[in-house]
TrEMBL record:
Keywords: Glycoprotein, Hydrolase, Lipid degradation, Lipid metabolism, Signal. This is Lipase. It comes from Manduca sexta (Tobacco hawkmoth). Residues 65-123 form the Partial AB-hydrolase lipase domain. InterPro entries: AB_hydrolase_lipase (IPR006693), Lipase_euk (IPR025483). The keyword Lipid metabolism applies.
Length: 434
């Protein structure tokens, strides 16, 4: 199954200010999910404990998942101003409801968090995952993939696999916001002939929205609403022990990694695969510890461990070391500011010794901030600080369950009833304001 191809060229534009776009054909069977090989080993080790549907979904990439469940889909490639080739997935309409093409459907753009991909919004399956629910609710759904993840690991000139030249990986979420999100938004609006869209960003997906609209405030007019699912920006109240322990060493970690020819984090799954298949299978004395570790990582009381192969089939999906280092700088210096290179580079790039903070008051998009009280990655107190700094906060909304946390936004078995239904109501509310 392939998509219709449409190639549109932009002539006469300054390449420094604009980007090239290209839509490519993609076959369903051409690719497997980021960690499909890992799932194969997990299945053989656990001797078919999980249903074949879960294991099949774990191996399929996003187009494969959409095709399997009978949803219309398109694969689009967007080339950014600085040459990164990004893959975007589209669900133009529903399967069971609102299932006819309509060029005037309101648009929702979904952006994943750190180390994730567009699969975040689909792994819970039809009837449960946000991407499917929005399509059934009558929205034209677009799902982005940040540079460096499994789907967007290409560049016009740079090689992501080069050990000698790490330039492909010398980006943080600053570039993702400034270049990638701008390219996605411009492409979607040009393609659909519409003027605005809704933006839903989880964690880093929220960070990149804030980066774009503070650095390029002209983009504010292109959004109907910003639905921030625990957007990561302020860390004044961070109490995550691992984050606090690593943040002081952010510069050393990145420098060391690049000197070793490593620019990517979780691009190579060999150790995790080896450990999981040898020590986490049923019957191993470490099996209870593995289950406990996942519970600790997710901190979710609604995390279905039967779904573990499916989640691990799609995440982690890769990211740059610098993305992590940039968050470390935010924690270390207690400031939401641009990436801190070094004195000389800062002077060359920013014209000052230290990087400037993002001016959140320039963000005038109606902002809806959503949070859980048990979120350890993004403390709810910091989201209240963020909401006060934004230029147009409509409201800050707590998910009622007191134990709702960072991973429940994408992996909770009760995400639909606890949050997604409410989120869709808020998106409809924003629609009525336009």
């Amino acid at each position: 199954m392939c998509q219709l191809v449409s190639i549109e060229w932009f002539h006469g534009f300054d390449m420094i200010k604009w980007f090239l776009v290209l839509v490519c054909v993609s076959a369903v069977a051409a690719r497997r999910s980021p960690n499909a090989d890992y799932i194969d080993e997990l299945e053989s080790t656990r001797q078919g404990r999980y249903s074949s549907d879960i294991l099949e979904d774990a191996r399929l990439d996003v187009p494969g998942l959409l095709a399997k469940y009978g949803y219309p889909y398109e694969v689009h490639n967007v080339i950014t101003e600085d040459g990164y080739i990004l893959e975007m997935h589209r669900i133009p309409h529903g399967r069971d409801r609102n299932n006819r093409p309509n060029p005037n459907k309101p648009i929702v753009f979904l952006m994943h968090g750190l180390l994730s991909s567009s699969a975040d919004f689909l792994v819970l399956g039809p009837g449960n995952a946000l991407g499917y629910l929005l399509a059934e609710a009558g929205y034209d759904v677009w799902l982005g993939n940040a540079r460096g993840n499994f789907y967007s690991r290409r560049h016009r000139r740079l090689n992501p696999d080069s050990i000698i030249n790490q330039n492909f990986w010398k980006f943080s979420w600053d570039e993702i916001g400034y270049y990638d999100i701008a390219a996605f938004v411009d492409y979607i609006l040009q393609r659909t002939k519409q003027s605005k869209l809704h933006y839903v960003g989880h964690s880093q997906g929220g960070t990149t929205f804030l980066v774009l609209n503070s650095l390029r405030p002209e983009y504010n007019k292109k959004f109907k609403s910003f639905q921030g699912l625990a957007p990561a920006a302020i860390f004044t109240n961070n109490d995550h022990l691992v984050f606090s322990a690593l943040a002081p060493f952010e510069n050393i970690i990145e420098t060391t990694a690049f000197s070793m020819g490593i620019g990517e984090i979780f691009g190579n799954r060999e150790f995790i695969t080896w450990f999981a298949t040898n020590f986490c299978h049923e019957g191993s004395i470490f099996h209870p510890l593995c289950g406990y570790a996942m519970t600790i990582v997710t901190a979710s009381e609604n995390f279905n461990q039967t779904m573990l192969p499916l989640f691990l089939g799609h995440a982690p999906a890769g990211a740059s070391i610098r993305q992590v280092a940039h968050y470390g700088q935010c924690i270390r210096f207690n400031a939401f500011r641009r990436y801190n290179f070094n004195l000389l580079t800062n002077l060359a790039v920013y014209g000052r010794r230290t990087p400037p903070e993002y001016d959140l008051s320039k963000i005038t998009v109606p902002a809806y901030i959503h949070y859980g009280l048990r979120d350890r990655e993004v403390n709810y107190k910091d989201l209240h600080i963020l909401a006060k700094k934004l230029g147009n906060t409509v409201g800050i909304f707590r998910i009622p369950r007191e134990t709702f946390n960072h991973y429940d936004f994408i992996w909770s078995s009760k995400a639909k009833t606890e949050f997604y239904d409410f989120l869709i109501r808020k998106i409809r509310e924003a629609d009525r304001m336009h």
